[in-house]
Design a protein that fits this description.
Radius of gyration: 29 Å
CATH class of the largest domain: Mainly Beta
Distance between the termini: 79 Å
Strand content: 25-35%
CATH superfamily of the largest domain: Type VI secretion system, lipoprotein SciN
Shape: elongated
Number of domains: 2
Strand order of the largest sheet: 4-1-7-8
Largest sheet: 4 strands, mixed
CATH architecture of the largest domain: Sandwich
């Protein structure tokens, strides 16, 4: 008596398998399209927008918050050490961008020549925060920083940002373990 039901069970099992495959593919397709829409498959980033660098207007001000990491500038024992940061007002980027660390650190005035309009030197203990408020020198188009990391060969020791002609220019300099990042204040 049960032998008569066996073909029906087999047929129902086969029908379920046939119906389950398209459903599984449909679910898989929906998940794939959802992830693609969210950019999970490496959506192309838009090309960087070009920023027109404009000189600082007369009476423009500069406000820089500089934050040194508690782990900044590790010494041979791995302990953080004090570090020096130089903040430059420049009217061109080429000399700064092409100079070596030693050229900028040992002879910045000669290396940068007439592109250097002003310089401020700051000393940081690990974890220290400092704020610099100054007037931008007329003709300044670039704010640049150099950090005197002990191990400068392995560090990102330089950063720069172009001005866009604003009356107030607010920057944040982050001195990390062996790198400097320069960007807008939060």
């Amino acid at each position: 008596m049960t032998t008569g039901l066996y073909p029906v069970r087999w047929w129902l099992a086969g029908l379920r398998a046939v119906l389950a495959r398209p459903f599984a593919f449909l679910c898989l397709g929906l998940v794939a399209f959802s992830l693609a829409g969210c950019g999970a498959f490496g959506a192309k980033k838009p090309p960087p927008t070009e920023i027109e660098i404009k000189p600082a207007p007369v009476d423009a001000s500069l406000d820089v918050i500089a934050v040194a990491s508690p782990l900044v500038n590790p010494g041979p024992d791995g302990l953080p050490q004090p570090v020096v940061m130089r903040l430059y007002q420049l009217n061109g980027e080429t000399a700064f961008a092409n100079a070596s660390f030693r050229q900028l650190w040992e002879a910045d005035a000669e290396t940068l020549g007439p592109t250097m309009l002003g310089k401020t030197e700051l000393y940081f203990a690990p974890g220290e925060v400092q704020r610099v408020k100054a007037n931008l020198i007329e003709g300044t188009t670039i704010i640049a920083v150099v950090v005197g990391f002990r191990n400068f060969e392995e560090a990102k020791w330089r950063a720069m940002v172009g001005l866009q002609g604003d009356k107030k220019f607010k920057l944040k300099a982050e001195l990390k373990t062996l790198s400097i990042e320069l960007g807008p204040q939060d």
